[in-house]
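I'm stuck. Please check this protein.
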Amino acid sequence: MSPTVLRSGPYRLFFFSNEAGEPPHVHVQRERMLAKFWLEPVALARSTGFSPPELRRIQTIVIENLNAILEAWNEYFTD
């Protein structure tokens, strides 16, 4: 299961439900492209298919929505 946290334009931001043991992060998908961003601090962990300018746009989306994403992470992964 991968709950969607946010949709912004063509991007879907989500978590994988089996990643509770990792530090807070979010995955971003558009079509077949995928990226992973750490949240504390916001930093690109890895990416497949996105261009550098698009990754900068995505990082801005993550930063602008950081509080909501972290809140969703904590709610989802709290025992």
